[in-house]
# Entry
Amino acid sequence: MKNILDVQHLVAAVIYSGLGAAVFFAWFVIFDKLTPYDLWQEIVVKQNRALATVMAGLSVAMGIIIAAAMIG
# Structure
């Protein structure tokens, strides 16, 4: 039985976590460019809760998709 805390598994987890974060960040930047308004200003400055809820849902969905793609 292999040790779960093997160095190879730990390194792979760190690499895939970084890759997933980079893909998620790239997705957010692209989505921000495609929308006709500044997402950060709408959510933080104008307190647009509806947009924040939509972005939260999209963020969770993209996270699930990225995780499933990395797991295989």
Summary: The chain has a mean pLDDT of 83. The helical segments are 7-34, 39-45, 49-71. The chain has one domain: 7-71.
